[in-house]
Amino acid sequence: MEAELIIHAGDFVTLAVLNELRSYGEVVGIHGNVDDQEVRAALPQTTAFNLDGATIAVIHDAGPRIGRLARLRRRFAEADAVIFGHSHIPLHEQAEDGFQIFNPGSPTERRRAPHHTMGMARVLGGSIDFELVNLD
Fold it and tell me: Fewer CB under 10 Å: which end of the chain, C or N?
């Protein structure tokens, strides 16, 4: 599987993992709550970037489930979508205005999720389509 860009929503744990991902291609990432000091020094807490006309924000901890979609919409008002991690539980929600939030789960630490997962995003002309990929 190939990708133009790797987006990581935190919990690299060590700089070695970040560097390995960078050996595969461009990485946009933020640090998570279990990342060591080297990762925290190398990456921001949040980021936002434009890809083919769509603005994507990335945050690790999106907060409580209740009100999450509206809360992230307010926090990242200019974004078309927010990718987040922390819970390691896959989630994809979309607001009536098209704004989306996406948690791809985790390929390594599934916690309470039934499967190891990752996500794919396809961006074309400002439109974002997310797909959850089951790795088991």
Answer: N
Instruction: Please tell me the distance from the alpha carbon of residue 91 to that of residue 72, in angstroms, as a whole number.
Output: 14
- Quote the pLDDT of residue 7: 96
Beta-strand relationship, 27-29 and 6-8: parallel
Tell me the helices (H) and strands (E) count for the chain, helix number first. Answer: 3, 9
- State the 10-residue block means of pLDDT for the chain, 136 residues long: 87 95 94 96 97 96 95 97 94 95 89 87 94 93
- Count, residues in the chain: 136
In the Cβ-directed half-sphere of 123, how many Cα atoms lie within 13 Å? 18
The Cα–Cα gap between 23 and 47 comes to 21
Q: 37: which DSSP letter?
A: H
With vertex at residue 119, the alpha carbon angle to CA 26 and CA 85, rounded to the nearest 5 degrees, is 85
Cα 37 from Cα 126, distance rounded (Å): 35
